[in-house]
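#data-curation
PF: Archiving a pair of folding outputs for the training set. Convention for this channel: one message per protein, sequence first, structure tokens after, nothing in between. First:
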Amino acid sequence: MVRVRIAHVSGRTILHVDLDAFFAAVEQRDRPELRGKPVIVGGGGPDQRGVVSTASYEARRFGVHSAMPLRTAGRLCPQGIFLPVDGRKYQAVSRQVMAILRRYTPQVQPISIDEAFLDVTASRQLFGDGPEIGRSIKQAVVDEVELTISVGVATTKLVAKVASDLRKPDGLVVVPPGEEAAFLAPLPISRLWGVGDKTATALREFGVVTIGDLAALPADSLERRFGKHGASLASRARGIDADPVQSGDPAKSVGHEHTFDVDTSSREVIERTLLGMADGVAWRLRAAGIRAATVTLKLRDTSFRTITRQTTLEVPADLTEPIYDAAVSLLRRELHGQRIRLVGVTASNFREREQLAMFGEGDPRRHATAEALDTIRRKYGSKAVTRARLVKAALPEPFERDPMTAVEHRGGARRGRGSEAPLEFVEQANEPVFDDNLGDTDGVEDPGTDA
């Protein structure tokens, strides 16, 4: 544990809390025979397609890391124990941890299933200063959930996030007010939000290797080279970040992705998969009491070329049929015999309950049927009832096997795995939610993985 002495506390006190190797740690907690062994979560074995969701620290010693192909992980760590993702279990554990965090402040912003920001500025009189609160939370998580967390304490979300990552696992790093720039200065530029591979390459042209190198550059030079993003980089390099902790911020979208075991050009297989995913998306929308006005289709072919296309519905929907019809319409414009590796459906542009009346209720019989099916699924599980077309589809069951991945949400620091309510979820089979061909991923850490 690293502690930096604080002479006085002023301004905001922000904590970033991050569960250590979350998925693997939960499996090791629940199965004592796995403790001390290299556990790799993300699939049933090294011969499967897909990527590592997380690796225990024992596996990381062999070079295994999140977002690595399972087959590569198998070569690096042949003695690794490969386990499928149990999204439902991890979500339940995440809720336990988030409940502990909310004992200390209502200002909790989950940004993935295993991490959150807390603003504890107003909690000092009750619970002490930031480091004291951090230690208390760490102990509570160990005592009640039997997991370890790493905590960063600072005056900004940006610095707290960087701090929590420095001494994992089970770390506590405190950055005193006024020392943010000095704390960041020696760190590699890759640790700064907003710096992806392309930006890092461009910054090397200026001789930038560390965050301190970036902070030393004139802001106008950065603006000329990177535009508005340059001004933001200059501020971040000095630890300046006015972004507040936003609790209860709604998701922007909810969707599913599926990676086929074997690349396919079969229109029937792809459309049937879309139907299953549209069903799951509609289920989530109804559970949240919202409808979506925009449907997005994602396709990744065998060469890893990824395209996304979207359309706006005439009437916002929370039923399977209009979401599926929109996705299939987009598919038929883009599918011309190429072999498809991954397909995804996302609903966005939400309309809240009070806005729905202006659009009408549509066919009340369809809504009544959907609500009846929802009731059955909630009581007996998602396998209790399904569409005839999907009986032999062999698709992964939504919300059970698939990793849960948080959709992009307002005020969030990144797109990552699933998150504590009220955020909705993207459900995926084996791959992180990002497009390989989009180039720079500035400002977004590797989603679909945990640290």
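PF: Second:
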Amino acid sequence: MRVLNFLLLSCMFTGVTLAQEIVDHNSMLMDHGGGHMMDMGGGMVMGQNLDTLPGGCDKIAATKEITVRAGHKYAEPFPGRMFAFDVQEYQFEPCTKLTVNFINEDNIRHQWMMHGLPGYLYPKGMFHLEVTGPGKISGTLILPPGDKTYLVHCDLAQHMEKGMKGQLKVGKGSGDLPSIPGVTEFVIQDNYEDAIPEEIVVPDTPAASTKEVSKSVPNDSWISGVMVVGLAVGFLAATLLARKFKGMAATEVINYIVGLLKTIVDYIISLISGLVKKGASSKT
């Protein structure tokens, strides 16, 4: 019995250990052409370029390789962040052939995406590595010529906003990007002070101020009275008009309404004209 229990515990421990291991997806990738490879286990490479030089590159200037780790634990140095890469900034000379080994250490999906690459060489101007769950995947690209700063990030919802982003400078770069953890200030910095309500202080004011406050408050009873009167007038007018229009054809109803409106407008104009003439005569 003890031997059986030992064997069961050993199998459970082995299963847990294997589940936590980093899976290498490179041996399982299927090439779909155009630098696009993927497997059934959640690994993906898009925009891989092993040998085509970007315009302006006469030759490969250097061959470099980096390992990028992604996970929740790398966000710990950045308060308010949830996910991060282990390194937030890279710099290489133009026309470098760069291999990126991307390791996801979380039990969820993460990406390492680079934007702004030449569209004629990289579909949608993008180089993309992706792993679902703990795993490793590698991809290669050739950096363009010139001095430029490129965004690298995880494109899953809220992963970049919560800290999983960085910048890659080619040559001297073209400046720093905003909100790079540990590199540049956040454009919209989390602020938890607003969540704490301030103490409400009621000033000790004389009774006269109460009257001033009451004047500024709308009179709800007056508003209600106006609404009631308006509804009553509208109901009465609707009843009278319904009796008036009874038996009329549609064209007759329209002609009657147009004539009524014209009469009202003429009356208002004559009233205003009389008031103007009266005002002018009083001045003279």
